[in-house]
Each structure stands twice: as C-alpha cells, then as structure tokens.
Amino acid sequence: MKIVGCDLHTRYQQVAMLDQETGELMERRLEHESGEARAFYVALSSPVRVGIEATGHTRWFERMLAELGHELWIGDAAEIRASMVRKQKTDARDAAHLLDLLLTERFPRIWRPTLEERDLRQLVWHRQKLVWMRNAVGNQLHALAMGEGVCRKKKLFTKKGRAELESLALGPWASHRRQELLKMLDQLDQSLHQLDQAVEQQAEQNAEAARLMTHPGVGPVTSLAFVLSIGPVARFERSKQVVSYLGLNPREHSSGGRQRLGAISKQGNPMMRSLLVEAGHTAARLDAELRQDYQRLKQRRGSGVAKVAMARKLAVRMYWMLRSQAGYAQLVRMQGSPWATLVKK
Question: The dihedral of CA 115, 116, 121, 127: what is its sign?
Fold first, then answer.
C-alpha cells in the first residue's frame, strides 16, 4: 500500500508518500489548477491511503479520490496540531507529520457525513444565513423608524406598520435606503418561504427528523439540522458528549481541588446552537417540566442563562429520542446516562 500524508491548501498541496512495498519515500509539491495534483493521483496504483487535516474546500478532492478508488482519511485538526512536538511549522513538516501519524496508527480519524448529507446541510445553512440577513435588514428598518420617533417592534412589519414606515417623511437618501431595504426584505421573505417548504419536505422524509418533531417546540428546521449535525447517534455513548460536541458545555478552569466553571465553550456548530436556543425557548412554554426549570433558572440567573440551559436540556432529550427510537409521547423521564429509563405513558 502507498501511504500519503497531504498538507492540503486551496491552490496547491504538499505530499509525503511512502511505498510500503519498496520503502521509497517521496516529498513533492503539487499544483491544483495545472492538473498536476490529479495527474499524480491518477498515476498511483491502488491501494492508496491519503490522510489530510480537516479543513474546508475539500469536496473536489474527496470526489477525485473516490473516482480513482483511493482511500481518504480526514483527521481532527486540533489533535494533529497538539501531537506536533517541534515548533517549526512548514508545509513539508506538516505533510511528513501526517504521514508519520498514518504509519504509526496514531492518525485521529474523524467521522464525515456523506456527500449527499453535506449537500443537504447546505439547504439548512443557506436558510439560516438568509434568516440572519433578514434580521439585519429588519434591524436597519427599525433604526430608521425609531429615528423618527416610531417604535413598533414586530408590528412594524405588519401591513399597518409597513404603511406607517413608508409614510415617514425622510430625506432623499434615507428614503432611498428605506426603499432598498424594503425591497431586500421582500426578496428574502420570498426566498425563505421556498426554503422553508424544502426543509419541511426533507424533514418529513427523514424518519429521525420526523421523530424529533413530536417534541413540542421542535420544528422541521431544528430537527433536520440536529440529525445532520449529529450524524449516527451511536457515535456518542453519553449525552454529555453531545452537549460538548455542540459547544453547550461550560468552560472549566479547575485546579488545586477547586472547580471553576464559566460560560459555554461555543466550540460546536453555531447554527445548531442558535436553533436549539430558539427551540428550547419555545419548548419551555409548551412542556411543563421545561417551563418549571426555565422559570426557576430565570429567577436565579437571568433569562440568558435560562435560555441556554433549556437549549442544553432539549439537546439531551433529542439525543435520547434518537438513541432510544422513542417519540415525545413515550418520554416520561430522561437521565444523562446510557441506561436512562424510557417509560410509556
């Protein structure tokens, strides 16, 4: 087998390859646009194993290696960097380090969703990006209205509120800005309506997402995004691992027998955290247990901490619903343990 450690960049890659049959070691820089990289891998006879550090813009590389019948391993970037002893960093050293990890069976391989699942992620991500853009446009319109003494909050975007906004006497350029923002808002609303329909259709076709939607407050967007973000639920033995994976676990700096916990780590998917906070806030109004916990935490720590706590509790519930293949109607009690009890009502 030929083992290749590949330090992948957008325009080129540095490779270190060992032929285990002949013992030959080769180091080389390959350009992408000239076709040099593709020609290199085409010339290699199978079996070939290529190891790269997890990074973006790899879809074309994964597809090319799959077409050629080569095996691709993707490693955890943080663990790869942590295992480097020397402080000198060059492309050649990085490629050689990846090769060494592959040869010594220390390569921190990570799970990767399929190309189809990653394409479906683009649907959810695109919708969420447009939601954030719409919020930004709405905030600018609110600012224009409040500058004229009009504060309507959500009512500004009702039929009556919009008519009032359009009737405000503004300067020439402020009026131009208002019209441009309203036009953008209409376009975003139209696009989001189409994307919401597509997400709902995909969620209904996915059995796991459909099961999660039985929980109050969990809609098609949150359920589908959770399934796509988590992947196979068997990857996580405990709910704490899911919480950590999503970045909802507290930061910790404990020493000398004293435990110090801080805010959440935010090391996971920011879109998924945002969706869980929104869904958790809604679920706290609809689920009696969550509502009680939310009110208690709100009085003690404030609404911000309470909302994040509800997001964490909801993530744990959704994990166990997938793990136990149980709907919300079957859920009575849930503990953060693989031996949690699910009792039918």
Answer: positive
pLDDT at residue 199 tops 50: yes
Tokens of 202: 């995909």
Q: Using one digit for the tens of pLDDT, what is the confidence trace for 90-132?
A: 999 999 999 999 999 999 999 888 888 989 999 999 999 999 9
Rg of the chain on CA atoms, in Å: 25
Identity of residue 80: I
Q: What is the pTM of this model?
A: 0.83
